């Protein structure tokens, strides 16, 4: 038996909150980044680790300014974003279309699912040599590696969402006399939409991951190529700068996709 105190003060949704609580809620990322930056600065000032191995924050900043000033960073950003966008567009489109088919058409599922599930454990970096042999060291090999990785992720999530639409939704639509087409458009796809957008969101992150794997070999520009070049010259300041830029790019695109998903799939929140 639960005993409650009727005189106890209940929390008021619109009541006063302390500034610390507001800061913790709205500025959590800034607090986290500030904490990490403080630890990083302290380690650099203590000189426990040599500067050539673990660069200081100011060294990374100066390296970033240097790469931006001489034009290498803007060019690499443009090239890498273009490759990631094209590869993601190809992979996500094919993944959604094929996921819709394998999720609802038994014949397509029987023919393709075993083969696609066999491909899923193969990492993108293992396909880089094959992509170079097939498409050369040009843009085609990068598009192939990125689209391959994104395709499998988006396909799997779309297939899962389409295959496991609750039967109660389908029975309700049929009892109301909905046609097959209307049932597919107004019931099945909305029910599977959260899974589809989850796959697309994960595909965005994997697009950057596979892009760097593709650019580490067989490329003459891009962020991955610049990372490889910095390793050859032991420029850890540039390496840290490029890694931070990749993290910011990935997080920014992920946030945009997440917000779009919230707007489009507004009926599936929480």
Task: Give your account of this protein's structure.
With 270 residues, the chain is mainly α. The chain folds into two domains: 30 residues; 208 residues, MetI-like (MetI-like fold). Helix content is 76%, strand content 0%. The protein contains eleven helices and no strands. Helix 4 runs parallel beside helix 7 and helix 6 crosses helix 7. The longest helix is centred in the last third of the chain and has 36 residues. The chain is elongated and about 70 Å long. About 3% of the residues have low confidence.
Spell out the key features of this protein.
270 residues, mainly alpha, MetI-like fold, 2 domains, 11 helices, 0% strand
Overview in brief:
Helices cover 76% and strands 0% of the residues. The chain has helices spanning 19-26, 28-46, 57-69, 72-104, 106-119, 128-135, 139-163, 167-175, 180-215, 223-232, 236-264. Helix 4 (72-104) runs antiparallel to helix 9 (180-215) and helix 7 (139-163) runs antiparallel to helix 9 (180-215).
